[in-house]
Amino acid sequence: MTGGRNGSSVHGLTGKPLLYFTSVFVSLGVFLFGYDQGVMSGIITGPYFKDYFNQPTRAQIGTMVAILEVGAFVSSLIVGRVGDIIGRRKTIFYGAIIFVTGGALQTFTTGMGSLILGRIIAGVGVGALSTIVPVYQSEISPPHNRGQLACIEFTGNIVGYASSVWVDYFCSFIESNYSWRLPLFMQCIMGTLLALGSLLISESPRWLLDNDYDDEGMIVLANLHGGGDIHNERARDEFREIKENVLVMRSEGERSYTEMWNRYRKRLLIAMSSQAFAQLNGINVISYYAPMVFEQAGWVGRDAILMTGINGIVYVLSTVPPWYLMDKWGRRPILLSGAIIMSLALSAISYFIYIDVHYTPRMVVIFVIIYNAFFGYSWGPVPWLYPPEIMPLSIRAKGASLSTATNWAFNWLVGEMTPILQDWIKWRLYLVHAFFCAVSFVLVYFVYPETKGVQLEDMDAIFGDQTVAPTPATARQSLLHPSRSGSPVPELDIGSADSKKSRSAGRSKNNQGITGWFRRFFAKSEYESGGNYRRLDEGDEV
Fold first, then answer.
1. Are 221 and 238 in contact (CB under 8 A)?
2. In Å, what is the CA distance from 61 to each residue of 45, 112, 167, 197, 416?
3. Pick from 230, 196, 197, 210: which is nearest to 7 by CA?
4. Across the chain, what does the average pLDDT equal?
5. Which residues contact 350 (CB under 8 A, 6 or more apart)?
6. Which residue spans within 247-381 are E strands per DSSP?
């Protein structure tokens, strides 16, 4: 049995190299999210941008920036179901295409109307990517370093943000409208790379097994966790555990949103609250409006963008320690310590803007950097890791969809209101977000469970909402001994060497070249139309 389109390794990579390659590559999806967060922060203070849009008011600037979240909110509600139907991989591809379309409209805008339309369309793409990429990441990651891989993904987000700020800074030296059109065009380049790359990565093994593409799922698991060997015991144990969970969930029937809420309410509220507080804790005051914050503190023009760029570099560096700490310390200690320092830093920013002395600009920069660093270490990565890992497979995409929609709803609220509140309540704005940091500390301390090192299929025990259907222990016993009567999954039939050779030859002949690659990708389902892999219960024909 050899890998097909979704089951093959990438250029011979298997195991950890394949895991890290895939994680880094899909991080382009959240790179686009981060880039879009930061790109507007620099260009909205530029003279050519202001002149082109007739000196927009603070309310108009707020709308330009925050309207992206409207499209992202809508798509994040829909994409969970889409991802369940067409798969994680195709959802990433279509999300990238939509994002490129929106970026092109922004780049070649002729007025505020077309810019806003482009922001909405780009938001649809960002919403799809920000929902499905964390789900995909959690589903390909082993439990012992799931946190590390999710943190690498988040670093991609912040690299996107920092890159946008420095692109804004260097383009600010251009004496024409290209000073703001060029940063917007960079969205199209990154989105195109992600779309092309999605043709290379494997499909999620959990999605494949959930849709009964068991041969394909076994190959992906072998590539990810068994060095490409489908006889590897670890990969086969992983297959049986996932398939057991699929069958148990399937016996309970389709999960509607109402049933999901009734049964998994605690999980949903935790997932949604983590994303809500990630925004209420104040990060987008900095991400979207950092140059305006620095101007408020006394930095002027290009210097404000430069300070934002320096802050962006520290922000990126702050996301690296969680790569090593997330699976050692756990999620709770990181969230709790981050909330404390962020609250103190925001309070200090508020104080120094209030007293308005000669050293205020320097002190504001220092405490903004401290705040950003501790957000990047804590409330940045964890809310993207936590929701998909605590959700059962049957509702994972839907649950992640709701939590991501919560993120975008509060993202829009903060983005829309920040420039208005900066003008209205001034220094007190930062105290509001400091208060929310304190509230998030209390919530995590009393409500959030620790999920470090827990298998995705074992989260039921953490939350105490185990199924009343045949127990996982019973199902696991029959899966581990498939020859016994009543096994829910037939024994894997690898087939003879001649059989494998003939199937491999058939695949090579029918699927060569770029044309075959695109034909297979855009087909509704290669498995539904005489594809290369059969479901296990169909047996092998020699």
1. yes
2. 10, 10, 20, 34, 8
3. 230
4. 80
5. 427, 428, 429, 430, 431, 434
6. none
Helix ranges (DSSP H) in 378-532? 382-390, 396-424, 428-447, 459-463, 472-480, 497-510, 513-522
| Cα gap 310→317, rounded to integer Å | 11
Q: Which CATH architecture has domain 15-247+257-452?
A: Up-down Bundle (1.20)
Q: Is the pTM of this model over 0.85?
A: no
What pLDDT is attached to residue 474?
44
Query: How far apart, in whole angstroms, are the C-alpha atoms of residue 496 and residue 435?
Result: 65
CB contact at 8 A, 380 and 154: yes
Q: Read off the pLDDT of each residue in 312-341 and give the average, rounded to a whole number.
A: 92
pLDDT for the residue numbered 116: 93
Q: Calculate mean pLDDT across residues 394-410.
A: 85
Neighbours of 250 (CB within 10 A): 15
Q: What would the two tokens of residue 182 be?
A: 């060029």
> Per-residue DSSP letters for 226-281?
STT-TT-HHHHHHHHHHHHHHHHHHHT----HHHHHHHSHHHHHHHHHHHHHHHHT
Total count of residues recorded for the chain: 542
Q: How far is CA 265 from CA 269, 388, 395, 419, 452, in A?
A: 6, 15, 12, 35, 21
- Alpha-carbon distance of 313 to 308, in angstroms, equals 9
HSE (side-chain half, CA atoms, 13 Å) at 300 = 0
What is the Cα–Cα distance from 154 to 292, expressed in whole angstroms? 25
Check if the beta carbon of residue 398 is closer than 8 Å to that of residue 260.
Answer: yes
Contact 331, 385 (CB under 8 A): yes
Whether the Cβ atoms of residue 215 and residue 207 lie closer than 8 Å to each other? no
